[in-house]
Specification:
five-stranded parallel β-sheet, binds adenosine-5'-diphosphate, 233 residues, binds zinc ion, alpha/beta
C-alpha cells in the first residue's frame, strides 16, 4: 500500500501508472475517478466539477466515500498505489481508520520533490488524449503529428484545470493543505523523498528500487538469508 505525494505536475500520475503495471497492483487516482464522475453529469458530478475547475479540493466526505468503495473491490487485496490521495489531514486520518478496520497497514509514502521551473513547464505543456487518456507534453514528450494521439488518433486537449490561474491555485492548495501531510507521515516514519526532476525512465527505476528496499511484499516476515536452524524444533 503506497501513497505518492507531490505537487500537481510532479509526474505522480505517470509514475503510478508505470508502477501499477510492474507491481501488478491497481493505481487509484482520485483525480481520474473524479474526472469520470464529472463525465456522468450527475448531481455529484456537477458539484465536483465546480471545485475542480477552480483548482479547489473536492470535500473530504465525497473523497472518503469514493476511496472506501474503491479499496473494498477484490483487485485491492494485494495492495494498491494512491495517487492524489490523501490530500488533507482529515483524509489521512480517515485513511488510517480504514486501514485499522481492515487490519492492514500503510507500507510507504513517497514524496516527489521538484523545482518550480520544471513544474511550470510540465503543467503548461501538458496535453491529454480525449479518447484514450494518454498524456503528452509539448516540451518533453510531443506527439508525432500536430494535436493527434500517437496511440489512437484521438484529439489532444489541454486539461481544463491546466489554465494558468487555475494552476497557480492548485499549487497554492497543495502547499497549504497537502504539504502538511509530509510532517504527519514523517511522524509515522514512513516517508521517503525522491528527486522528481529526473527523466521518467530513470525515476521509475529509482522508485522500484526504493520500494524493493522499503516494502516487504505480502507483509510476510523478512526472508532469512540462511536456512533457519531446525535442530531445536
Ligand atoms: P493534480 O495533482 O495534477 O492537481 P489530480 O488529477 O490529482 O491533479 O486532481 C485534479 C483535481 O481533482 C484537484 O484539483 C481537486 O479538485 C480534485 N481532487 C483530486 N483528488 C482529490 C482529493 N484527494 N481530495 C480533494 N480533491 C481532489
Ligand atoms: Zn489516444
Amino acid at each position: 500500500k503506497l501513497i505518492l505525494i507531490g505537487p500537481p505536475g510532479s509526474g505522480k500520475g505517470t509514475q503510478a501508472r508505470l508502477l501499477s503495471k510492474k507491481l501488478k497492483i491497481p493505481h487509484i487516482s482520485t483525480g481520474d475517478i473524479l474526472r469520470e464522475v464529472v463525465k456522468n453529469k450527475t448531481q455529484l458530478g456537477q458539484e465536483a466539477q465546480a471545485y475542480m475547475e477552480k483548482g479547489e479540493l473536492v470535500p473530504d466526505n465525497v473523497i472518503i466515500e469514493i476511496i472506501k468503495e474503491r479499496v473494498s473491490r477484490p483487485d485491492c487485496e494485494k495492495g494498491y498505489i494512491f495517487d492524489g490521495f490523501p490530500r488533507t489531514l482529515t483524509q489521512a486520518q480517515m485513511l488510517d481508520k480504514i486501514f485499522k478496520e481492515k487490519n492492514k497497514e500503510l507500507d510507504l509514502v513517497i514524496q516527489f520533490k521538484i523545482s518550480d521551473e520544471s513544474l511550470t513547464k510540465r503543467l503548461s505543456g501538458r496535453l491529454i488524449c480525449s479518447k484514450c487518456g494518454a498524456d503528452y507534453n509539448l516540451y518533453f514528450k510531443p506527439p508525432r503529428v500536430g494535436d493527434i494521439c500517437d496511440r489512437c488518433g484521438g484529439k489532444l486537449l489541454p486539461r481544463q484545470d491546466d489554465k494558468k490561474n487555475v494552476v497557480i491555485n492548485r499549487l497554492k492548495v497543495f502547499k497549504n493543505q497537502t504539504k502538511p501531510l509530509v510532517n504527519y507521515y514523517q511522524k509515522q516514519a514512513k516517508i521517503k523523498d525522491i528527486d522528481a526532476d529526473k527523466k521518467s525512465e530513470n525515476l521509475n527505476q529509482e522508485l522500484l528500487q526504493l520500494i524493493d528496499a522499503e516494502v516487504n511484499p505480502n507483509g510476510l516476515p523478512e526472508k532469512q538469508s540462511f536456512p533457519a536452524e531446525s535442530a531445536e524444533e
